[in-house]
Amino acid sequence: MAGKLSITVDTYLEQLKVVRKASEHTVRAYARDLSDFVAFLESEGVTDWQQVTAITLRRYLNWLFAQGYERRSIARKLSSVRSFFRFLARTGYIPVNPALELKQPKLPQKLPTVLEVSEIEQLLSSPDTSKPRGLRDRAILELLYATGLRVSEVANLRIGDVDLAEKLVRVKGKGGKERIALLHDEALSWLERYLTEGRPVFLSRGKQITDRVFISQKGTPLTVRQIHRIVDGYARKVLGRRVSPHALRHSFATHLLEGGADLRVIQELLGHSSLAATQIYTRLSRTHLKRVYEKAHPRS
């Protein structure tokens, strides 16, 4: 980014990274959204943040709709802008926050994807575990479903985070917040097999030693994108449709709730900062149960 407006944005992005410990993915998303916003402001002749008013922001909202952005994308961009203006007001760049009047477009309620238990079984058993790569992939799938970890949390796991004796992994989630994720015996068994039989094979091919748990066949740490491809590849092969790692997180939470787990326990396991974020699974569970009922009952 270049120019006076962009310099301030760069300062904000650095603060996100260093102070708020935002993930690289989050920082990149904010950078894209604010870059678009700065481009719009410059096209409007705005050269200073104090020139931005509530009217300017409404024009930006109208411009986003005119560009054909979906409501969900617009909501995300406006969220980035509001967060940025809170920073500007807090740090004295502007005397008044014009984004306080900026309203989010109404979004349709979209329930997250949840797999049936039978689909989970198909997915987990799909890797060829006679090979190191299959052992790694089985361990990844088992871990995602056993713990409900975010894909970024799985990618960032280090050997020191895994405690096989206590059947747990220590996770650093959003904002650097730490929590414990528990492992059941099946997931523990596959993770242990990968660590003893699969990972050393990949590590021997690498040029540098890494303490990341999940690594590529070349010995380099797996990226979030690579883990996405692994999960999606097996899902398309055995289920015939696309599935993201986050669908396993949703399935984990929904199946726990249906099994009688307390909502606050699920909140803790997922690493949600508020119970409101976890309550979506109560709706999801009812929808899931209704779907199973309608599919299974002979008179439905």
Task: Give me the secondary-structure topology.
Blueprint: H1 4-18, H2 24-43, H3 54-66, H4 71-90, H5 117-124, H6 132-147, H7 151-155, E1 162-163, E2 168-172, E3 178-182, H8 185-205, H9 224-238, H10 245-258, H11 263-270, H12 275-278, H13 280-296
Helix pairs in contact: 1-2, 2-4, 6-8, 6-10, 10-13
Task: Describe what this molecule looks like in 3D.
With 300 residues, the protein is mainly alpha-helical. It is 59% helix and 4% strand. The chain has 13 helices and three strands. It has a three-stranded antiparallel beta sheet with strand order 1-2-3. A hairpin with a 5-residue loop joins strand 2 (168-172) and strand 3. It is globular.
Question: What keyword list fits this structure?
Answer:
single chain; 300 residues; mainly alpha; DNA polymerase, domain 1; hpI Integrase, Chain A; 13 helices; 4% strand; globular
What's the short story on this structure?
The chain has 300 residues and is mainly alpha-helical. The chain has 13 helices and three strands. Strands 1-2-3 form a three-stranded antiparallel β-sheet.
- Element pattern in H and E: HHHHHHHEEEHHHHHH
CATH third-tier fold name of the largest domain: hpI Integrase, Chain A
Task: Sum up the overall morphology in one term.
Answer: globular
Number of domains: 2
Number of helices, counting only DSSP H or I runs of 4 residues or more: 13
Helix content: 55-70%
- The CATH superfamily of the largest domain is known as Intergrase catalytic core
The whole-angstrom Rg is 22 Å
- Tell me, what is the CATH class of the largest domain? Mainly Alpha
- Poorly predicted runs of 5 or more residues: none
Widest beta sheet: strand line-up: 1-2-3
